[in-house]
Amino acid sequence: MTNHERFTHCFATSLNIAPDAVLDSLTYQSIPAWDSVAHMALVASLEGDFNIMLDTDDIIGMSSVAIAKDILKKYGVEL
Amino acid sequence: MASNFELLTGKVALITGASRGIGRAMAELFAANGAAVVLSGRSEELDAVSAGITAAGGRAVAVKGDIREEAHQKALLMAARGSFGGLDVLVNNAGVLYQGVLGMVEMAKVRDMFEVNVHALINLTQFAVRLMAAKKSGSIINLTSIAGTETIEGMPGYSAAKAAVIGFTKSAAKELAPKGIRVNGIAPGFIDTDMTRAMSADLHRKRVEGIRMGRIGTAEDIAKAALFFASDLSSYITGQILGVDGSMIV
């Protein structure tokens, strides 16, 4: 599994949505599935799969799929 | 070490302030009860604690650093996940105490007490919850003090910081109960540690005379209370502050 596939899998399983719905344009709270509870599940999933610990500011700022990719790059994750 | 009932078999526990005293007693008791332990502390003694646990057949990882630094907090969680696959128990034990009557309270020391006893505790808990939430279970144990529950004359800053720990504990317990994570506090009384041994003989005697059970508490007394909260024996208990003080009068 590539990093990108792993990233998509984290979003899909945490938000309980189809992998093809994980688009850069998808934003936090734009769909009922991406609420605050799912957001923390997503964070836990990303941290576990990529073996990182995100800063609190990054968790708060992770407001879209596109931004999530940028944030993960800061932690050395190439997507 | 007494009280080895394998109550924590299969669990991973992170203990701050584990170099000596109460934190060390908890680390050894938890390990003797089957837990894998991640130990945080600043001094070189931390390695000896870890080595002792390993020599006794337990599993331990020591991560030295300053609990006030977020990088150290993250390193602890990374160690729990990397070495043992997750986290089940967090003991926020690290703390500092400065005395000072009103009018002679140094604000730098008050800030330090809040930084270590409260701010670091809150932030480390935030990190830990992320690991525990994945399992939908966990136990967080915060060390407050009889100074937080009853307040102690001549310790206004310390009493305020430890009261803040109680407020945080109760709030976090409400928020995390639906996630299966329990949050409780332990409020030690007068405990035999390096800190209390450094007191004047007269003050030490007076403190002990104020304990109805007639003896100073031990680090093991506190560790056993922590073992209860860490284990499934307390699986339906959250948001509670347990005094472990031998009925101390303050």
Describe this structure in words.
The complex is a heterodimer of chains A (79) and B (250). Chain A has 79 residues and is an all-alpha fold. Chain A contains 4 helices and no strands. In chain A, α1 packs antiparallel against α2 (36-50). Chain A starts with a helix and ends in a 5-residue tail after the last helix. Chain B is of the alpha/beta class and 250 residues long. Chain B has a 7-stranded parallel β-sheet, sandwiched between helices. In chain B, α4 (107-135) links the parallel β4 and β5 (138-143). Chain B starts with 11 loop residues before the first strand and ends in a 6-residue tail after the last strand. The mean pLDDT of chain B is 95.
Briefly say what this structure is.
With 79 residues, chain A is an all-alpha fold. In chain A, 56% of the residues lie in helices and 0% in strands.
Highlighted features:
heterodimer; A: 79 residues; mainly alpha; 4 helices; globular; B: 250 residues; alpha/beta; seven-stranded parallel sheet; 9 helices; 7 strands
Assembly context of the chains: heterodimer
Q: Extract low-pLDDT stretches of chain B.
A: none
Write the H/E string of chain B, N to C. Answer: EHEHEHEHEHHEHHHE
Helicity level of chain B: 40-55%
Total number of beta strands of chain A: 0
- Average residue-wise pLDDT of chain B: 95
Major sheet attributes of chain A: none
The proportion of strand residues of chain A reads: under 5%
Q: Largest chain interface and its two residue counts?
A: A-B, 11 and 13 residues
Shape of chain B: globular
What gap, in angstroms, lies between the N and C termini of chain A? 12 Å
Question: Helical segment tally of chain A?
Answer: 4
Bulk shape of chain A? globular
Strand elements of chain B, count: 7
The DSSP helix count of chain B reads 9
From the helix content, strand content and strand pairing of chain A, which structural class follows?
A: mainly alpha
Major sheet: arrangement of strands of chain B = 3-2-1-4-5-6-7
What is the helix content of chain A? 55-70%
Rg of chain A (CA only): 11 Å
Order of helices and strands of chain A: HHHH
Question: Spans of chain A with pLDDT under 50 lasting ≥5 residues?
Answer: none
